[in-house]
Amino acid sequence: MLKTILPTIMLIPLAWLSKNNMLWINSTMYSLAISITCLPLMNLSCDNSLNMSLLFFSDSLSTPLLLLTVWLLPLMIMASQHHLSKEPDSQKKLYITMMVLLQTFLIMTFSATELIMFYILFEATLVPTLIMITRWGGQTERLNAGIYFLFYTLAGSLPLLVALVYTQASVGSLNLLLIQYWNHPSIQVWGSSALWLAYMMAFMVKMPLYGLHLWLPKAHVEAPIAGSMVLAAILLKLGGYGMLRITVMLNPITNFMTYPFLMLSLWGMIMTSSICLRQTDLKSLIAYSSVSHMALVIMAIMIQSPWSFMGATALMIAHGLTSSMLFCLANSNYERTHSRTMILARGLQMILPLMAAWWLLASLMNLALPPSINLIGELFVTTAMFSWSNLSIILLGINIIITALYSLYMLITTQRGKYTYHIHNIKPSFTRENTLMMLHLTPLLLLMVKPQIILGTLY
Amino acid sequence: MNMASAMMLLSLTILLVPLINTTNYKSNLKPYPDYIKTMIFYAFMISLIPTIMFIQSGQEMMMLTWHWMTIQTMKLYLSFKLDFFSMMFMPIALFITWSIMEFSMWYMHSDPNINRFFKYLLMFLITMLILVTANNMFQLFIGWEGVGIMSFLLIGWWYGRTDANTAALQAILYNRIGDIGFILSMAWFMKNSNSWEIQQIFMLDFDNTTLPLAGLLLAATGKSAQFGLHPWLPSAMEGPTPVSALLHSSTMVVAGIFLLIRFYPMMENNKMILTMALCLGAITTLFTAICALTQNDIKKIVAFSTSSQLGLMMVTIGINQPHLAFLHICTHAFFKAMLFLCSGSIIHSLNDEQDIRKMGGLYKPMPFTTTALIVGSLALTGMPFLTGFYSKDLIIETINTSYTNAWALLLTLIATSLTAVYSIRIIFFALLGKPRFSSLILINENNPLLIKPITRLLIGSIFAGFIISNNITPSTVPQMTMPLYLKITALLVTLAGFTLALELCYLTQNLKYPNPSTMFKFSNLLGYFPFIMHRFNPLTTLHMSQKSATMIMDLIWLENVLPKLTAKVQQNLSTSLTNQKGLVKSYFLSFLITMITTLLLFNFLV
């Protein structure tokens, strides 16, 4: 694992020592090289995990997320170029440093063997993200968003620390590879339910579960583009990853503790996607659509069947790439019209036809067009939910309709119709932006050919 | 037989060539639209070989080509089913697309994005063929959603127009409602048969198949615009006319019926679903025929007649005659595509005028289109020995001699006679009488790109029914004998429709009642359906999402219960405790509480 972590850390001196005109190119190329060196991790010769050392391991659940993380860094760097073009060079370097730090923490989080290390790094990711939101965000609301982001996540995860300390004291180990052999807690004691809640709440907030999701739209909307991308693509998936890891050891209690959360997710999924129908703010729409998609992941993890676990993993990867791409597209609109309001940037297809093609593809991915991996994820989750309870198909079906509606509403409002006069002299789309979209879309399309590699441990 | 499968795959792959060649195509050879059209022609010719071999030998095939993935116990293949239905439908779809492509070269010649238009049509054709040849539900779903998205893109082709965008969104919305049914049955089959391969599903004997079949019926309702989910089809006429001809009459909209035909081995054992299909089809065919009666937009009339014919196909499914329904799909494709091409020719010649009240007397300036339109309309009404006769007459006879739901049968018969009424209305208003269009318009229909495709489809509309029904083996035993009055019912109701309509047309040609009757309003306003469904439903949903989801839940409750409440409590506590206000009592109280808590904790814990 060090061969990924150390080069990533070395990105910081690279950024600071680069000549100012080579800053972006150097860091992009170098991080892209890192992400390519990570690809062999996919080659898991057998079902076992790849134990790199006592501290780090990777298996078929964490590898796709790990690769998503390393893949996203060059994309983030590419996306931020225009946003930072007016800042002084030291600020640019600081910004890259923050992204790299976040990247390092994330890599270590996804590959940590010890739960307590996972916890520490999970918390550590908050710091660079917070700095990115509150320092480089667009408007003054960024401070409020930062506070929401920090306190929701912190307050949610403090019980997890207590639970981990308790487990360490009673079991003697927090090693993820050993923990499945843990003597399962009995169902009768109310304390074990509290333990379950303590374990799960941190991840539920991070996902986020409906009701605990208020930080997400705020943070996503106010964050700079790289922040939005990493939040939507990876930080939410930390929650899913943690839940997938932890549910293995909480098994008998999960069976009856899940009901309220399943209900809340089913309901929240529809509520959040119907909020999307009334959004005027492009980034907020994408943020709420993330909440609705993540509700599907929560349900899938709660169902605890092989199909649902596979669906959850596939959906996490698919959503990571799709929503990150949508944020990039929203940002490209923002950089031209200087507003996130959808109605101010309509009819763009007339002026930016290639960008309209990216919009179309991203929206189609978001509404899970077959055979995209988004569909594979959603279909697996739907099937698992259907076999759990036949009636759930009604709510899931409504959500499918609303998802299609808001995705196309977004597409039609921004791309179709007559263009407005104030966008007469906007800039054409840059090669950088088109490359960025293509780099998002290529993995999505390539994964269609072989979706097995993102189906997680149970495949 | 190996050659047949290879040829079939070849004709499928040929279609991919222009898509792959988009960027490196040399435009000095011939224009890109022409290139696509030629490729489709090749694909059509090649696909005829396996079809002829199939007709000769009757051997069905299934091809597993590529193992996609294995999920636990379920294998997903890229598999093609080359049976009667796909073998017969493929050449027909290719033939019609070929003709429509050629027509589009004339119709869309001034469009700056004509290359993209052709690419879209080609992509649509590919997804449609995926749908038809799919052997597992997942692959079928790929085609199913693919045609939906392509229809979205093609309806919204003139994306500057609000109406086009609305219609496109409407199409997707109604199709998505149907998709829920599809996903439901996929989930059900996954759960109960652990397979999505169609022949494996049929192998098993399920206890109760009502739920998945209801799902499939819902899917077919959405895609084939059956009653309840029908409004998207007439709205889809916002798209260019070639799109209406290809997608919304001959290929895409029959996908729902095709799905039910695919699943007939399962459906024929479930009487409840059959009855539901019968009633749904009967209501659709009558309702949309009534709506067609008073429309003035030529494309809308043809669209409603499509909807009515789809209802007739659904009725045929309902009386458990899937092969007949399939025959009607095949024959209907020819004359309906031609009717749209004719109306396209008229619309284009009259400078985009679609209102039949502003046409009239077109038989003189456009004799060829007139001929084609009249032959198409007669074929549609089931004139003996034209294409429509071979399927429609058979369907009506089978209905007449069957023992099922008499009410549904009656509705179907009425709808059949109404077919004649709206057909004669187009002919009467658009073609006969005196011209009512601007006299400055130059009408010229002597363009080979217009004449050739219509001629081909015209020949198809006359002979295709004869050829197809002569070359297929009867799968169900036809009714050999029946009383004379049952035999000629179809003809009689159609004739009655004709005579009545002709008289009515003469009556209403100039006269306009100051206050239209309720019946007229019902028909003209599409049964008040759009007013109820398209205003009330979105309004409630959007109100709910604005008021309850956004305002009450997100902005008020969730905000106030957790973050704001915490902040408020902390703020109040700290202000009341930190500022020195001389509140000695509360200071002592807080001191006391702390002491007691500490003591108690120590007492119990240590």
Automatic annotation (TrEMBL), chain A:
Transmembrane regions: 21-42, 54-73, 145-167, 187-205, 225-244, 256-277, 284-303, 309-330, 351-373, 393-414, 435-455
Record's keyword annotation contains Transmembrane helix: yes
Membrane topology: Multi-pass membrane protein
Record's keyword annotation contains Membrane: yes
EC identifiers of the protein: 7.1.1.2
Residue span, NADH:quinone oxidoreductase/Mrp antiporter transmembrane domain: 112-402
Entry protein name: NADH-ubiquinone oxidoreductase chain 4
Recorded GO MF terms: NADH dehydrogenase (ubiquinone) activity; NADH dehydrogenase activity; ubiquinone binding
Catalytic activity: a ubiquinone + NADH + 5 H(+)(in) = a ubiquinol + NAD(+) + 4 H(+)(out)
GO biological process: ATP synthesis coupled electron transport; electron transport coupled proton transport
Subcellular location: Mitochondrion membrane
Gene name of the record: ND4
Ranges for domain NADH:ubiquinone oxidoreductase chain 4 N-terminal: 1-109
Sequence similarity: Belongs to the complex I subunit 4 family.
UniProt entry keywords in alphabetical sequence: Electron transport, Membrane, Mitochondrion, NAD, Respiratory chain, Translocase, Transmembrane, Transmembrane helix, Transport, Ubiquinone
InterPro entries registered for this protein in UniProt: NADH4_N, NADH_Q_OxRdtase_chainM/4, NADH_UbQ_OxRdtase, ND/Mrp_TM
PANTHER family assigned: NADH-UBIQUINONE OXIDOREDUCTASE CHAIN 4 (PTHR43507)
Any one of the GO CC terms: mitochondrial membrane
Primary role: Core subunit of the mitochondrial membrane respiratory chain NADH dehydrogenase (Complex I) which catalyzes electron transfer from NADH through the respiratory chain, using ubiquinone as an electron acceptor. Essential for the catalytic activity and assembly of complex I.
Taxonomic path: Eukaryota, Metazoa, Chordata, Craniata, Vertebrata
From TrEMBL, chain B:
TM segment ranges: 38-55, 76-97, 117-134, 141-159, 171-190, 245-266, 272-294, 301-319, 325-347, 368-386, 406-433, 454-472, 484-507, 587-605
Location of the NADH-Ubiquinone oxidoreductase (complex I) chain 5 N-terminal domain: 68-118
Membrane topology qualifier: Multi-pass membrane protein
Keyword terms: Electron transport, Membrane, Mitochondrion, Mitochondrion inner membrane, NAD, Respiratory chain, Signal, Translocase, Transmembrane, Transmembrane helix, Transport, Ubiquinone
Pfam family, one: NADH5_C
One GO term describing the cellular component: mitochondrial inner membrane
Cell location: Mitochondrion inner membrane
MF terms (GO), sorted A to Z: NADH dehydrogenase (ubiquinone) activity; NADH dehydrogenase activity
Reactions listed under catalytic activity: a ubiquinone + NADH + 5 H(+)(in) = a ubiquinol + NAD(+) + 4 H(+)(out)
EC number: 7.1.1.2
Listed GO biological process terms: ATP synthesis coupled electron transport; electron transport coupled proton transport
InterPro entries referenced in this protein's UniProt entry, alphabetically: NADH_DH_su5_C, NADHpl_OxRdtase_5_subgr, ND/Mrp_TM, NU5C-like, Proton_antipo_N
Segments forming domain NADH:quinone oxidoreductase/Mrp antiporter transmembrane: 134-418
Principal subcellular localization: mitochondrion
Domain NADH dehydrogenase subunit 5 C-terminal: 422-601
Signal peptide (from-to): 1-22
Function: Core subunit of the mitochondrial membrane respiratory chain NADH dehydrogenase (Complex I) which catalyzes electron transfer from NADH through the respiratory chain, using ubiquinone as an electron acceptor. Essential for the catalytic activity and assembly of complex I.
PANTHER family: NADH-UBIQUINONE OXIDOREDUCTASE CHAIN 5 (PTHR42829)
Family: Belongs to the complex I subunit 5 family.
Name of this chain's protein: NADH-ubiquinone oxidoreductase chain 5
Organism: Pipistrellus nathusii
